[in-house]
Predict the structure.
Amino acid sequence: RMFPGYYRNVIFVSVAVIDSGHFKGKEEISALRTQVEESLAKFVDLARRQGLNAGSATMVTTDPVDGLYRVCVDLAKKYPRVMFFGGKLIWKRESWWQRILHNETAYQVQRRLQWKGLPMTVLPLRTGEDAPSLAALAKTPEPGTRG
C-alpha cells in the first residue's frame, strides 16, 4: 500500500529459531523448518494474487538476528539492487513489556545491514483488534486505482 506499482518482485524472509523446546532431534528441527516455510508460503501466495513475483528464503538458526542478517546478505549477492523491509509490531495501547519483547529484532538487523551498506526500512505492523486481516489486505485495490 505504501509503494503501489513500485516493487514487482518480493522475497519474504524468516528464520526458524531453535530453542530448548525444539532442540530434541532432527525430526523437531525439520518440523520447525516446515512450519516456517508454510507460514512464508501464505505470504508468497498473497503477493502472487496481488500480481507480484514472489518467493521466500529461510534458514534454521539459534540466533534470529544473525540468521536474518545472513539470509539478507546472501540475497543481496543474488539481487544487487535489493531493498529490505522489516516489521515493528505496534499496538493501540502498548505496554512496557510489549515494547521490550517485540520491537528490537528488526532494528538490530537494520543496523547490521546498513553498516554493510544495504538499505532496510522498518515499517509499523498494527496488531490487535483494530488491525487489518489478511483477507482485508488481499482486497487492496490494484495500483493506480482507487479503493
User: Anything to note?
Assistant: Residues 9-138 form a domain with the Rossmann fold fold (CATH 3.40.50). The longest strand covers residues 9-17. The chain has a mean pLDDT of 83. The chain has one domain: 9-138.
